[in-house]
Amino acid sequence: MTTFEKIYNVVKQIPKGKVATYGLVATLAGNPRWARVVGYALHVNPEPFIIPCHRVVNREGRVAPAFAFGGENVQRQLLENEGIVFEKNGCIDLKKYCWNGEIL
């Protein structure tokens, strides 16, 4: 299995209404130092409707300014459609919405 495939397998597990950080995805995919690689993999996501890359945010709970599938406003809207509420500062409360990493 390639590194990108490992990353995609983790991202597929993030439940609707939850998010994960790049670092958490990297750790669960096998290497905590792959956070940037997670970003690269999601930017070229071959199946954006199957691999929910919009559910991956940075360590501050911010969406990607260069979200590959329409920009940060699209990523934010997709998350809001799943019930995620953004704070006034534009961040997601990770204590409330971060996925616990439990692989199904």
Key attributes of the depicted protein:
mainly alpha, Arc Repressor Mutant, subunit A, two-stranded parallel ribbon, 5 helices
Structure description:
The chain has about 100 residues and is mainly α. The chain has a single domain (about 5-95), classed as Winged helix-like DNA-binding domain superfamily/Winged helix DNA-binding domain (Arc Repressor Mutant, subunit A, Orthogonal Bundle), CATH 1.10.10. About 40% of the residues lie in helices and about 5% in strands. A two-stranded parallel ribbon has the order 1-2. Helix 1 crosses helix 2 (about 20-30), helix 1 (about 5-10) packs across helix 3 (about 35-45) and helix 2 (about 20-30) crosses helix 3 (about 35-45). The relative contact order is 0.20.
List the helices and strands and how they pair.
Layout: H1 3-11, E1 20-21, H2 22-29, H3 35-43, E2 56-57, H4 72-81, H5 94-97
Parallel strand pairs: 1-2
Low-confidence stretches: none
Order of helices and strands: HEHHEHH
Question: Strand-residue fraction?
Answer: under 5%
Instruction: Describe the strand arrangement of the main beta sheet, using strand numbers.
Output: 1-2
Annotation field: number of helices = 5
Number of domains: 1
Please summarize what this structure is.
The protein is mostly helical. It has a single domain (3-97), classed as Winged helix-like DNA-binding domain superfamily/Winged helix DNA-binding domain (Arc Repressor Mutant, subunit A, Orthogonal Bundle), CATH 1.10.10. It contains five helices and two strands, in the order αβααβαα.
